[in-house]
Structure formats: structure tokens, C-alpha cells
Amino acid sequence: MKGFDSAPAPRRALGSNILLLAALATCSAWLYLLGADSSTPATSHALPQNYQHILSTCASLHATPSIASSFHDRTESDRYVRGSEATWIRNASIWTGSRDGVVHGDVLLGRGLIKFVGSFNAQQVRDMGFELDKLKIVNANGAWVTPGIVDLHSHMGVDAAPSLRGADDTNSLHGITQPWLRSLDGINTHDMAYELSISGGVTTALIIPGSAGSIGGQGFTLKLRPTAERSPFSKLVEPPFAYNGSGIVPATPLRWRYLKQACGENPHGVYGATRMDSIWALRVAYNEARKVKERQDAYCAKVDAGLWRDVAALGEFPESLQWEALVDVLRGRVKIQTHCYEAVDFDGLVRLTNEFKFPIAAFHHAHEAYLVPDLLKKAYGSTPAIAMFATNARYKREAYRGSEFAPKILAENGIKVVMKSDHPVLNSRFLLYEAQQAHYYGLDADLALAAVTSTPAEILGLDHRLGFIQEGAPYVLIPLFGMFTELGYDADVVVWDSHPLSLGATPTQVYIDGIAQLKDPFANEKPSAFQKVPETPDFGDEAKKAVEYDGLPPLTPTPNVGVVAFTNVGSFNAQAFSAPTTIVVERGQVVCNADCVVPKDVGRVVDLKGGALAPGLVTFGAPLGLVEIDAESSTSDGVVHDVLRGGVPSILGSDPIIRAVDGLQFSGRSALLAYRSGVTHAISAPVSYGFISGLSAAVSLGAAHRLEKGAIAQRIVALHINIERGARESVSTRIAALRRLLLDAEAGGEWFSKAAKGEIPLVVDVANADIMATLLELKHEVDEAVGSKLRLVLARATEAYLLAPALARANVGVILVPSRPYPAVWDMARMLPGPPLTEKSAISVLLEHNVTVGLGIEESWSARNTRFDIAWAALESGPEGISRATAFALASSNLEKLLGVDLPRDIVAYEGGEMFSLSSKPVAVISSSRERVDLF
Ligand SMILES: *[C@@H]1O[C@H](CO)[C@@H](O)[C@H](O)[C@H]1NC(C)=O
Ligand SMILES: *[C@@H]1O[C@H](CO)[C@@H](O)[C@H](O)[C@H]1NC(C)=O
Ligand SMILES: *[C@@H]1O[C@H](CO)[C@@H](O)[C@H](O)[C@H]1NC(C)=O
């Protein structure tokens, strides 16, 4: 294929005479049986004692994974848990993943399988051998049901939640190519993430080693549900081998194996391997495997020809425990998952696959894949699928050209699209959100759902049992045998509270192997509009530009300092108009706010198509305006000195508090994307990995440089410090330092003195409730001593809900970062997950106690998703919960109140819908402070 197949295969000698003699001399196991088997060819002179074994080894040498014909007859799953009840889900809207499309009807789950889909009656259920009185009947009331979510890229169980040194098994650091390692050997079955991710509808995940090395090791596919045995092995789906107490037995027929490869920056960073080194390491490894494979092939060629004397001379069947996994790659038995981002890396891997003749199942992350579809199609064998994030990009150089339009563009190029979590990089509980965003940015609805169900199942080679809602065919007559057959998929299904592509869709129940996973789930009623595929904006032009500009389309808005008319405006500041109206703006000021006549001197007319004008949002928590590419220090302000560790340059004097305002940079891509998504301002603190961060600044995300009018909204906002467990010095040391800085004016210097006197907010980044309680006591102590009120704000604040009444009494507000919690570290282990696991989320608990709550983000790329974060928080709280106004306040006025800033009232124009809706797209920012309208 592609010019390589016709090239002669390299020939190598099968062994020198010396080796041959040595082999003969040492093989005492060989027994020469002249003419022992009349079925062997005449050339046969001798048969080794284990010749049957050799024959069967050689007979299966070219076997590739397949499905046993008996699989189609299965009436119960190999994972069926005896005694688990059958379930009849009635009146569901079933997205089947198959040609059947959407079926309105029932699903019967029994013996771990999907038994019926569609219309059936009690008699048919009885005929299948299910007793109605032992059956759980669930009335779905029209709710959406999908196949369980399949995550093609997860480190769950090898990378721990909460992260603990003793459970970090993601990356071996012992070699750049280690195909012999197996994720299975490191999978912790007690991890907190299983339950959390199941509660988001994830039922199956491929657990792969990390990307430190070019070959990180083998992956294994498991179901997330707990098993009675509690072992990693008992969670596996179709493991390639089994063990029984007296041996390891390969599965027959063969099953798929998985291998993790990586290229680009990660091997570079960990092994100091340039891209040249990485590809060379891969070629060396594959060459070793090729040598073993060729020896095996040559050996079996002799066996097949009955040349047993030659076989004897070769000795034992050539095997290598080190390289056998790569030999299996070359034999077409492995689905390779390759972490690879850039055109240059795809090019290297595509050449590698053609040199050694093996296919790659999927490129992962692959932020530049959409720019090079034709290159991907040159991969040996078949075009790799692309497994990606929706909007997580720019965190390192090779992710810099990532585009939210990549799923759409790739699909249009006929390339299979998978959305993956890389858990815990993204919390796989919300993997469906990746599909929702891909759909929002233009991926077809069915492909978006397939991207987290049937497509990953196919890439795993498990689409005969996972990723679809398909029943057996119990009444199909196989003419020849007169038998009934069934091909029921695994009973992994999710019942959703809204259409799965609508924002905030949450499972009301998750079945794995037919077993309901959520005990007493909490479900909120969702608005009826959320029960259908959301309408989404047209991003066709934006997608074209992304390709045209090689992944870096210009993001700078076009300013208009004259007159701009917005027509067809549906609402203004959440006040809906009875009929769409026209609003006129001049130099960024609204000069006519309803039923306006478009003036003659209008510079631009913007049709909002019933959309909205709404105040701009504020982002907090990520270093927007300070960092462009996280992993590239030359693109950022840098990291401040850690005062507790010393080494602060003496030239900074005795009060070395750093100001973010001094390090600001503008026009960054994450900043501009946030701006183009309705986030007009950021409050950013200096980046610190130590105790004191410094003073935050409030900046306009649309400004081109700091000298522009309105670019810096407030030069100094708050004083930021960090207190966490697991730092080099103890929590109590940091508390002691803080006490001294606040109580001893000389030690505290200008800024801690101001904080003590309540002249500037003190923002403490803290996740753990016990530390927060200590801080509340300290605040009391300081307030008493200083005679004023410390304006304490707790950021991150994962466990703050536990102290809600005390926080309210002390008038201490919190900023939850991130808005949807994940127990990344021990300090966060008591996080409140929210529905469906708990009725309330931390946001709603805190708000109910009248604590002022803001929401923040951890990484700059996610600032653009702020409006969805707040909409989600409101949806999650139910119809009686968080109002739209309160949700809006979470990322605007509450942050301003907590941090004591008064930001300019920029107004965002949304086309085609309101701010919280997936149907809308921001098209302009009206800025009175900057005296302009920025058009996108
Ligand atoms: C199915 O549920 C829908 C939505 O609740 C309802 O309108 C319809 O009547 C139900 N159909 C049956 C057969 O129960
Ligand atoms: C386990 O598997 C081995 C290899 O196939 C077989 O020889 C042995 O009989 C099996 N033992 C049991 C207890 O099933
Ligand atoms: C919160 O404030 C509201 C309105 O002021 C009040 O009715 C309610 O009782 C307060 N809740 C708590 C828990 O203090």
C-alpha cells in the first residue's frame, strides 16, 4: 500500500551455522520421530515432541481479532451479574446510535443485555423468559435514553482522585519506549472518580498510560461499575487474555489489544527527546519487533512446509516478552492510540506506519488534525480517528492552533471524530459536554452523540457490544438452522433529564451491564425547550477562516467609534421586548434604547435575529492577560518568588508584593476568545506556586494594549495568597505567617496592613474546609485586634459549603473555582457533587445561606465558556433554584462585590438567542468606557 507494499521485505539470515549447532546441541527436548505422522509432508524427517503446540502456534500466527460466531447467540452477557434484576424502561426517546436513529418506545434490559427496543408487550417479555413481577418497570415519560458514554482516553484509576503520591501510576519514567507496560497493573479500583463519572453517564473507558514516553504501554478497556471481586481485571471488557489459577490463556478468537503512543512535546519534556529522537526511538522499537516477527514467520514457513529438520535447527519458536506487544501491532491485533498534536508529528507517525506497516486507530488531542486531513489519510491501512477536546487548547505550543471547529471540519473531511476526556485533564463526568460544545460549533447532532458513544466503541473494536442501543433479533429465523438468534448489545444505557446535546443534561439513571448505578438519584425538571436537539448558530465562516489562517484566524475585533444600529433585538438586560426592536449606539453609548429609527449616519447595522443585549461577564481565577501559552514561559509574565522559600531578590526590599498590573499583556488568543464569548473583563492575580501571589488587576479582554482607553479597569483589586496542604511548609506555618503579616504592621508592610484594615480584600486560595474554618477564626482575631473588618474572600473553596452558615455570619464570600467541583486533591475530597448524586450543589447550598458566591475558572482557555458555566449552575439548581439574574451575578456583580471592583458596564450583543442559550452567538461588545462598538 502507498508505495511500500511492493518494496521487497528485508531478508535476513535465519541464523549462523554456529547458532544452528548450538541450538541442536542444547535442544534436548527435541525428539526425532521418523515418519511418525503420515499426514506430514514427505520432506519431514523429524517431529519435535511439542509439534502439536508448534503447529497450533503457527496456525494462528496470522490470526487477527474477531468475534466468535457464538457471540451472536449470546442470551446473557459474560458480565451479567447473576441475580441482578431485569429492567423495562417504558416510553423513552431512544437515540440508538444505529440506522434506526431515534426510536420512541421501550427498552428491555435483561441478563446484562439489551433484549428489546421499540414496541413490545408483556406477553413478549414473558416469552423471553422474564417474570413480570421480578422486573423493574421504569416509566421514562418520554425522556431521552442513549447508549452509555464510552471514553476513549482516560487515566482513571492510574491517576488518582484525589491525587496521592502512593497512587500515581500514570507514567513510568524508565524508558521512552516501553510497550511491555500495562495500565492494568496500576488500576486502582477505589478511586473517587468512578462514581462521579458514572453519574455523568460514562459507562466504559479505555485506561491508557500517560504520554511521557513515545510508547507508554498497553491500555485496557473497563466498565466503570464496581464488581464483587473488586479487582481491576474483573472490570475489563473483553480482555485479550484470561487466567485461571494454572495459566494465562489467550482469548479465542483473539481480542483487541490497545497501545498508547505519544509524540511531540511530552517525550521531549520528560526524556529530553527532540522530535528526531522520539521518532528514532519508535523506529528502533518497531525494528526490534519486526525482527522477532520475521523470525516467527520464517519459523512457521518451515513448519508449514514440514521442514522439521530446519525447524529443529531453529530451536524454540521465537518469542520476546519485551517486544510481543509490538509484534502484535505488526500482526494487526492492536488498536493504537497515539497522543499527537501537530502536522510535523502526524507526518512522522504516518511515515512510521508506512515503514512498518501498521495502522493507528486514533490520534489523540491532535489539535492540528483539522488542518491536515489529507496527511491523515496517508496513514497505513486506514485513516486514524481523531479523539479531541472541544475547547481546551493553547495550554502548550502544540495546542496553540487548536480550533473549536475541528470536529466539524474533520467530519466534513470524512474523518471519524471522538470527543475524549483525558481524565483527569478534563473531568470525564462531563465528557458529554465536549459533545455538546462540538455540536454547538457545528458538528452534526448525530455525529456529536456518536463521538462519545458508537464511534469510540468502534475505535475500540467493541462496537459489536458497546456504543449502540440495539436488541437481539429474537424472531429472526436463520433459515439453515431454524434457530433464533440474538445480538443484544451490552445493557449500558443512560436515561437523561433532557436532550443529551442540551446544556447541563444530567443522567437520571445509568445502567451498566443492566445494573442501575445511581441509588436514589436526584433529578431536576428541565425546561421543555431542553427536550430536543438544541438549535445552534451558523459558524461556517469562522470554520473556514480557521483553516484559511492555518489555525490562527485573526481574533481582534473591528472597532466602530461611530453609530451602530442593532435591529431585531429580542431583549435588553434581560427585559424582553414584546416585539423585536431596534437599538442605536453611538461611540459605545446606547443613545436610543427601543423602537429606534436607524439614523442616516449609521456606520453599521447588526441584525440580532431576535437575540439579546446583555451585560458583559467577568472571569476570575486564570491568569488571563498574564500568560499566553501556559507551558511556554517566554509567552508569560512568569512566576512570582515564593517569600516563604526565600530567594526574593533583595532589591525588592522588605515588602515584595508583586502587582499583576505590571506584567499585563494584551491581545492574547484565550483573552480574545473569551471577549468574543461575552466575557469583557478578567480579574487576574500574579501566578504563584507559593504562599503569596500578590495584587490582582482588572483588565478589559478586548483591549489591544495597556495604553488604550479602558484597557486597565482597575490597577489594584485584591491581595492574593494561597494556603493548601501538601506544600513544602505546613498549613500552620502559612497561617502563622499570615497572622504575623496581618497583626504586625511592620512585618505586613503596606498591603497586608491595608488588608488588615479592610482597605483591600484578602483573597485566599483554599479548598479545604478545616483551613477555611481556621481562617474564619483568624479573621475574628484580626478584626478584634485591628478594630476593623478584614474583607476575606475564599477562592477555590471546594469544601466551603460545609461552613455555609459560619461564612454567612462572618460575611465572608466565596469564589468557587472551578464551578463544577472535582476532587483533584485531598483538600477537595469532601466536594459536593450535585445532581444526580446529591440534591444540592455547593453553589446552591452557599446561596441558600446568603453567602455571596462568585464562579471562577482554573485555566485561561475555559474563560470563553463562562456563560455556559453559569447557565449550567442555574439549570442544576432546578426550576425553583437559581434565577437567571442570580446566575448572571455569579460571573459579574457578585465577583465585583467580593473583590471591591466597579467594572464598566460593557454590553454584549448576542445573535439568535439570549446569553445562556446554545442558539446564540456573541457578535459585538458595546463599550461606553472604551467609547466604541467592537464587532466580531
Ligand atoms: C410518553 O411520555 C410523554 C411525555 O411525558 C407523554 O406525553 C405520553 O403520553 C407518554 N406516552 C405513553 C404511551 O405513556
Ligand atoms: C486453565 O487454563 C489452562 C490453559 O488453557 C488449562 O490447561 C487448565 O486446564 C485450566 N485450568 C482450569 C482449572 O480450568
Ligand atoms: C437569606 O436571606 C433571605 C432574604 O433576606 C432571608 O429570607 C433568609 O432567611 C436568609 N437565609 C438564611 C439561611 O439566613
UniProtKB/TrEMBL annotation:
Organism superkingdom: Eukaryota
Pfam name, any one: Amidohydro_1
GO cellular component: cytoplasm
Any GO BP: purine nucleobase catabolic process
Residues of the Amidohydrolase-related domain: 402-480
Gene Ontology MF annotations: allantoinase activity
SUPFAM superfamilies xrefs: Composite domain of metallo-dependent hydrolases (SSF51338), Metallo-dependent hydrolases (SSF51556)
Protein name, entry field: Amidohydrolase-related domain-containing protein
Organism the protein comes from: Exidia glandulosa HHB12029
Lineage of producing organism: Eukaryota, Fungi, Dikarya, Basidiomycota, Agaricomycotina
